[in-house]
Design brief:
The protein is of the alpha+beta class and about 140 residues long. The protein has a single domain (about 10-130), classed as Nucleotide cyclase, GGDEF domain (Alpha-Beta Plaits), CATH 3.30.70.1230. Helices cover about 40% and strands about 25% of the residues. The protein is built from 5 helices and 6 strands; from the N terminus they run H-H-E-E-E-H-E-H-H-E-E. The strands form 2 sheets. Strands 1-4-6-5 form a 4-stranded mixed beta sheet, with helices on both faces. It is globular, with a radius of gyration of 17 Å. The model has no long low-confidence stretch (mean pLDDT about 90).
């Protein structure tokens, strides 16, 4: 499997556009989910950038696993989403890599530096919102 390159998700802010496309699709289907399942699905978005190790683990039943500091950091960002009651958070490190055209399509409200267990330095997190129709 070829590696996923950051440029794929950074181009035109596709990583953020994907999050908001999912939000829009769930909103579009909300009445149907409510009628059929009696629940309206929701989720949180945690976006960061970094190296991830991908491999297969297990002898009887193999599973593809994702490991590394980036995965742990994303888990901490998602936990911060829940605690701060924010639907999505993005790291400043990822925002710094976005092209200017993508930055223009979104607004970023600073949540501030957040200290994470196992990290020497706090991580600056932002709340992303759409500035314009993202398409």
């Amino acid at each position: 499997m070829p590696p996923w390159r950051p440029d794929d998700g950074l181009r035109e802010g596709l990583c953020l556009r994907c999050y908001f496309d999912i939000v829009d699709e769930l909103a579009r289907r909300a009445d149907g989910y409510d009628a059929h399942y009696r629940v309206r699905p929701s989720f949180r978005g945690a976006l960061h950038i970094g190296t991830v190790v991908v491999g297969e683990m297990g002898s009887d039943k193999q599973a593809i696993v994702y490991l590394g500091d980036t995965i742990n950091t994303v888990a901490r960002i998602e936990e911060t989403c829940r605690k701060s009651e924010r639907p999505a958070l993005i790291s400043q490190a990822l925002v710094d890599h976005l092209p200017e055209t993508a930055k223009a399509a979104f607004a970023f409200e600073a949540l501030g530096p957040v200290a994470f267990r196992g990290k020497a330095e706090p991580l600056s997190l932002l709340v992303p919102t759409r500035r314009t129709a993202a398409r």
